[in-house]
Design brief:
The protein is built from eleven helices and eight strands. The chain has 249 residues and is of the alpha/beta class. The longest helix is centred in the last third of the chain and has 22 residues. The structure holds pyridoxine-5'-phosphate (PXP). The site of pyridoxine-5'-phosphate (PXP) has 19 residues, from strand 8 and helix 10.
């Protein structure tokens, strides 16, 4: 079955926050993505509020009719917001001050008590609890231990290895196949543990196919490439192109 596509619209808020104004609207962007066939909308409410704001989360909860996934750190502040707003899913992610974007997966093993408590609170509130982790068997095992329902495997290392000329020939190709093997094995292990398997970070229409061919992967969270492409062709076409790349993989 074709994996679902959640479009991450953080960058729409980034453009808006560049002027601290009202446009472009994240709600209008979410509607455009849904009309183009997106299966869900993903946003990341960061501690520093650099793009998505608290009000956006509430407005999107009202407006999104497909599926709303909110990425957040497992802090007390964020748990309170999640439980109040009740998105369909919360993806727990690591957050490092000053990072440009999420740098790799959550270290569930090292933070097992905090993650377990957060997963329990989310699940009690009826929210699907997903953990963004590297495709590392130890982290997948920990995700099972803390009772998560889903893992989102971080595709950043794979995606980086496909960038530029080295991604097609030579070193990059060898690295890409190594990273793909880790994703394939990670997805199989997670599914064996009864976890839903999502994937995301750094994916483009050019490199998503190989990940979409991993049968256990049932969901993608993709933002940067779609919004970048939308600058030239509009969100509608950018979302359709990504859906097509996933469906025809
Ligand atoms: N999944 C997670 C957990 C992320 O933090 C991000 C980036 O916000 C993505 C997926 C999407 O990554 P990209 O914007 O590179 O497609």
């Amino acid at each position: 079955m074709t994996a679902r596509l959640n479009v991450n619209i953080d960058h729409v808020a980034t453009v808006r926050q560049a002027r601290r104004t009202i446009e472009p609207s994240v709600v209008a962007a979410a509607m455009a993505c849904e009309q183009a066939g997106a299966d869900g909308i993903t946003i990341h409410l960061r501690g520093d509020r650099r793009h998505i704001q608290d009000a956006d989360v509430r407005l999107l909860r009202e407006a999104v009719t497909t599926y709303l996934n909110v990425e957040m750190a497992a802090t007390e502040e964020m748990m309170k917001i999640a439980i109040e707003v009740k998105p369909d899913a919360v993806s727990l992610v690591p957050e490092n001050p000053g990072e440009i974007t999420t740098e790799g997966g959550l270290n569930v093993r090292a933070n097992i008590a905090i993650v377990r408590a957060a997963v329990n609170r989310l699940r009690e509130a009826g929210i699907m609890a997903s953990l963004f982790i590297d495709p590392d068997p130890m982290q997948i095992e920990s995700a099972r231990e803390v009772n998560a329902q889903q893992v989102e495997l971080c595709t950043a290392a794979y995606a980086e290895s496909t960038l530029g000329a080295l991604g097609i020939h030579g070193e990059g190709a060898a690295q890409a196949s190594h990273e793909l093997r880790r994703l394939r094995e990670g997805a199989a292990l997670a599914a064996q543990y009864g976890l839903h398997v999502a994937a995301g970070h750094g994916l483009t229409t050019r490199n998503v196919g190989a990940v979409a061919r991993i049968s256990e992967v049932s969901e993608f969270n993709i933002g940067h490439h779609i919004v970048s492409r939308a600058v030239f062709v509009g969100l509608d076409r950018a979302v359709r192109e990504m859906r097509e790349a996933i469906a025809t993989a």
